[in-house]
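DM from R.C. (forwarded with permission)

"hey, sorry to bug you on a friday — could you get me a structure for this? deadline for the figure draft is monday and I only need the backbone to look sensible"
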Amino acid sequence: MIRIGLTGNIASGKSEVARMLADRGATVIDADLLAREAVQPETQALKDIIKRWGKDVLKKDGSLDRAALRQIVFADQSELDALNRIVHPGVTRLRDREIAQARERGDPIVICVIPLLFERNIVDEFDAIVLVDAPRPLRLERMVATRGMEATDAMNMIASQMPAELKRARADYVIENNGSLQDLERDVDALWSSLQRNAVETESEARVS
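My reply, with the result:
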């Protein structure tokens, strides 16, 4: 089994690339989905969030109001760091569980979608890193037009992440998502072929050793 870290700054299109890879047969483990699981009602993470930011970050049903919390933490880097310290341990445990299950099933290619992969310095946990990138103005446009975000909130979120230029130098594969969906499909096809070759080589080496 090979473990691939898939990352990209917000609105780069990493979720779309992950979906395409899943369609081609990859096992996809998405940190954003795990983060939602990690802050379900009654979890320690949600209790810690309430302790720090109060009940104003909750919806009426007691679940986390992610939009309300986002407005707080993306306006202040220290608050964002605090949130990450609360949530990331739970997400890591859930991801390790999913990876172990994939290994037991014999899944050949596991894609871990992790927005803050470089920021968290976990590059070495993966056999290869795929970076999805798009120009900042295009990402801002996507956030405002597609997600309905305020421009100020979108710019704060973009500014909170490590510049993509620093990530590109450390990535094994870079997917440029600034064209059509057909262009993206073609690039993902090429990526998938390369990952399949890597998986076969890794399996062969494992048999020899």
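R.C.: lifesaver. DSSP finds nine helices and five strands in the chain.
me: no worries. The mean pLDDT is 94.
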